[in-house]
Amino acid sequence: MYSTLLAFDWLFLIEKLVLIVGIVSISLVIAMYETWAERKVAAFMQDRRGPNRAGPMGLLQPLADGLKLFMKEEIIPNTSNRMLFILGPCLAMLAAMMTSAVIPWGGKIDFFGREVNLQIADINIGILYIFAVVSMGVFGIMIGGWASNNKFSLMAALRGASQAISYELPMGLSLIALLMLTGSLKMSAIVGQQLDGTWNVVYQPLGFLIFLICAFAECNRTPFDLPEAENELNFGYHQEYSSMKLGFYLFAEYINMFISSAVMATLYFGGYDIPGVNDAHLTETVGVNLMALFQALTLFAKIGFFIFLFMWVRWTIPRFRYDQLMNLGWKKLVPLALANMIITAAVVLWLKK
């Protein structure tokens, strides 16, 4: 037993714990300031100033909003299922945070002679892991809506569940076409194939477009925010929630937006690949650690672009009707994704001959 403990790589455990704490902290901070950025983007598009009271340029507004949520009275309806009422937002937040585990945030760094990957878990089924965890997030919406014992919350939760089922199918089909080209489910391998080469979006433009539309639906973002249609369902599936339980639902949405942007950048836009630069040559010039920093900043710049796209679309396109939402998913996106998959398969087979 003692020899087994000595043989265990404790540095590896510490390394992963540091990565987990770092990525979780960065995700929470980015989600917090996404609320500020969304208000600023909305203000710019509507010719307003946006948050400008709490701190310079309103930069302390997210902290004020978070403090407000912490200080608010926590109300649990008497007719609700108490255990499930608490479990719903916790599950939504947990699913949102777990998705980041398989995303490669940069290259390797040299830490006192030890090679450290900027990735929590480099598993062989990285994409399948993301799909599995994202599917769990729907349970957070369903459980919260049902446990509230409110007809509007339940209707919104049913919308969210059916919406997720409808759009996960074309999203999965678009990824099958991508996997035919990459031949791997590992996120690090997919990024590695794009380093100093052609990004996957060049080979799969239609697949990326389908994935992008489905990502909007999966994140419950406009024009697919039917589970939160205030004009139809009051406040949506989290109508009965208050204090930090409501904060967990709101934060989960912004974290999902951040992680979805990271996944799209990783799968289709080279991940941490620096465009127009030979990464191997630059690594020899500036060193491994500085190169890893440049790569991480490049990935976050790509993520920032997609986050801005999420916000831009929200304040540009009106919300779909529910029948339009389902019609687009089943009658438009699924056939397009199937056609894209078949064409990709035919091209791959032709090139192998």
From TrEMBL:
NCBIfam families, per the entry: PRK06076.1-2 (NF004741)
Enzymatic reactions: a quinone + NADH + 5 H(+)(in) = a quinol + NAD(+) + 4 H(+)(out)
GO biological process: aerobic respiration
GO molecular function: NADH dehydrogenase activity; oxidoreductase activity, acting on NAD(P)H, quinone or similar compound as acceptor; quinone binding
A Pfam family the protein falls into: NADHdh
Subunit structure: NDH-1 is composed of 14 different subunits. Subunits NuoA, H, J, K, L, M, N constitute the membrane sector of the complex.
Species annotation: Paraflavitalea soli
Any one of the GO CC terms: plasma membrane
Function description: NDH-1 shuttles electrons from NADH, via FMN and iron-sulfur (Fe-S) centers, to quinones in the respiratory chain. The immediate electron acceptor for the enzyme in this species is believed to be ubiquinone. Couples the redox reaction to proton translocation (for every two electrons transferred, four hydrogen ions are translocated across the cytoplasmic membrane), and thus conserves the redox energy in a proton gradient. This subunit may bind ubiquinone.
Residue spans crossing the bilayer: 12-33, 84-106, 126-148, 169-191, 197-217, 248-270, 290-313, 333-351
Compartment(s) where it occurs, according to its Swiss-Prot or TrEMBL record: Cell membrane; Membrane
Signal peptide: none
Name of the protein in question: NADH-quinone oxidoreductase subunit H
EC number: 7.1.1.-
Keywords carried by this UniProt record: Cell membrane, Membrane, NAD, Oxidoreductase, Quinone, Translocase, Transmembrane, Transmembrane helix, Ubiquinone
Family: Belongs to the complex I subunit 1 family.
Membrane-related topology note: Multi-pass membrane protein
